[in-house]
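pinning this so it doesn't scroll away 📌
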Amino acid sequence: MHNGEHSRPKIAIIDPNTLSALGLKSILQNVIPIMTVDTYGSFSELAANGPDDYFHYFTAMNIVLENMPFFQEHKRKTIVLTLSLDTMSPLSGFNSLCTNVPEDELVRSILALQQGAHGHGEHLPPMPGILQQKILSDREIEVMSLIVQGFINKEIADKLNIGLATVITHRKNIMDKLGMKSVSALTIYAVMHGYVDINKI
């Protein structure tokens, strides 16, 4: 347990819906790559695995309601997964994450939570060196920042006074260098590294 495992903060997802738990796990690992994310299908599984070792619990609402004393005691660590914000009234005071939304919106909510919860990540351990390195050129960073703000290739070309083919090449290079396949993964990268303000996406 002590060989380096302690240095990676852990997040638990407690959700009987396996698909939802795995989907959230993959997004969280993109948003907070330094975290270890474990998934549990029930509260008893979490309870059997050292629940106090976790930094955060992303928990299905019914599980929070059924185990209120525990989550009330760990309110600051708990993020309730809800399908709509209207159902949150019995759980006022908890952070919540609406999972029934398009991917870009979900990513934005997680980033906002992450920034809000950790005051811009100041409580998180430092990023591994490889993630801190500047991988992209200044021009690629400009292009990436416009992509995640929702501009299309033609608009990016006009804004930066470069040809459309050049924008497409930059796009491909950015995705290749970062090993990313989707704009939402790129958005996470851009916000986490401070290249784009979350309010612009």
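📌 and the second one:
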Amino acid sequence: MSVDPSVKEYPWNSPYAFAENRVIDGRDLEGKEWENFMTTFSKPGELKMKLPNAETAQRQHYSVSIQNSNMSFADFKASFKDAPQNILTNSKATFNAPVDGEGKPSQFKVGSYIKINIQGPFNNAYVKVVGMEEKDGSMSATFATMEGHIEKGKITFRLNDEGEGKIKFSISSISEVDMGMAPEKISREKQAESWEEVLTNVVNKAGGTEIKREAKVVESPASIKEKK
């Protein structure tokens, strides 16, 4: 009976759409954003994992290299393991501290969950740590999206000691939009901005001099075939 109060921020949506027109699996918060019932009322461990289809998913890779870092590789790695949310939080998404399947505080490890508060008319959602590897001079952590997330995705954050005081941080993801909250183009733009901000967080945290930054996006095999 009234216009959505957030109508000016999201012109692609109807000003009268209730719960983003998803009334079966969601609710509408004060006439504003759609929120998934499963994420709202379920414990992290009760949610189903959502993985992307290799044929329809987009691949993204971002990296930054730092020289003369104020932090040693070991110290930076320890800081990331202790509080990954401090590095990963950006203006588009707030990463919370790791929890276990019951939603209780947990170490950052395989099997733990991280809730992400996403800006805009997108549902707050969980990712699960499905892989973590440490070797001499490297560390990686892989997340997978859970039910209620706007995407089906798998993403790996990797930290490398390049030697001679150089540190490299990279983000590699394979993902596809899984909800009709916003056009895919807009979702991808916001995602790219988020990861660029994370790279800047790394530079600010480590100190030193940024010597190289890369960003690469590879469209899905299905999209490439369509364009041909």
